[in-house]
Inverse folding.
């Protein structure tokens, strides 16, 4: 008789639930400009209301890449935070982009942002200098040590030049002020390791990876296309959370043309073109960026129309 085969041990995996520190749905808001290139604070107020009240955002990122932060002055950044906090701060969190290529200047902007009322800080990997990983640890810890609000690390190597390695995230995750990651690296396996081994709240930094990131423990999105897709993206996240996976997948697939189409050229160019198309103009762009061409704007407008948002 063949030897009796021992039964396989049953292992039950228990998912660790991470608190979505800044909510589930966040939009990196564009910065409106007047025709003369100055910041249009009145339209910034109206856009913030639109994103929170109509598009159902839990938080807004102000002075991020989509907000053309490389082209705005420190004083303009402060004014933007103040007016957005004044307009929607009673019903949404405001996260201020403060990251620069300088540790000292990043700390200075962090203090300015919290004094202006920001609830959180977005700190991008220092760009251009291409610091090694031990220098990244020192930079993020120095900013966090000086911070007066929770920090979301922005990992976007195709802009900053340097990725934040998994080991670096593991080295800084114990800091009480480092609480979240905007993940635009596009390496879901690496992200899933950090999610599994830390309490960091992981947000998709590229709209189209929101559902894949949720599937490995991510908590939400910091979006660009969410200027238009916010309500539907909220439905997708809610469906996933409720275990309605077929519904979540169907929404992901329906939104995919918008989520990818907004990056046919630089994202802020098409967001501003798209907002003009839907009747909410926010002005032009500051150099070195240019407005989307007529052809680019028309293609994105057709995508928005077809999406039935």
């Amino acid at each position: 008789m063949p030897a009796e085969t021992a039964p396989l041990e049953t292992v039950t995996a228990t998912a660790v639930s991470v608190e979505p520190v800044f909510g589930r749905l966040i939009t990196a808001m564009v910065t409106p400009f007047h025709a003369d290139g100055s910041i249009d604070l009145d339209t910034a107020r109206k856009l913030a209301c639109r994103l929170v009240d109509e598009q159902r955002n839990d938080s807004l990122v102000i002075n991020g890449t989509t907000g053309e932060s490389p082209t705005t002055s420190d004083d303009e950044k402060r004014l933007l935070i103040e007016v957005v906090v004044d307009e929607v701060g009673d019903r949404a969190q405001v996260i201020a982009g403060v990251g620069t290529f300088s540790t000292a200047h990043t700390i200075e902007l962090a203090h300015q942002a919290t004094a202006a009322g920001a609830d959180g800080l977005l700190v991008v990997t220092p760009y251009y200098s291409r610091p090694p990983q031990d220098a990244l640890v020192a930079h993020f810890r120095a900013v966090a040590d000086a911070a007066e609000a929770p920090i979301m690390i922005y990992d976007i190597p195709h802009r900053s030049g340097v990725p934040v390695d998994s080991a670096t995230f593991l080295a800084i995750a114990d800091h009480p002020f480092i609480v979240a990651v905007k993940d635009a690296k596009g390496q879901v396996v690496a992200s899933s390791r950090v999610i599994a081994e830390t309490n960091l709240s992981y947000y998709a930094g590229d709209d189209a990876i929101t559902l894949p990131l949720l599937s490995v423990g991510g908590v939400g999105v910091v979006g660009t296309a969410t200027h238009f897709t916010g309500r539907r993206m909220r439905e997708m996240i809610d469906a996933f959370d409720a275990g309605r996976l077929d519904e979540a997948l169907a929404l992901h697939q329906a939104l995919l043309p918008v989520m990818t189409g907004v990056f046919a050229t630089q994202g802020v160019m098409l967001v501003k073109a798209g907002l003009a198309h839907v009747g909410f103009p926010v002005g032009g762009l500051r150099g070195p960026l240019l407005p989307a061409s007529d052809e680019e704007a028309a293609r994105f407008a057709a995508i928005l129309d077809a999406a039935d948002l």
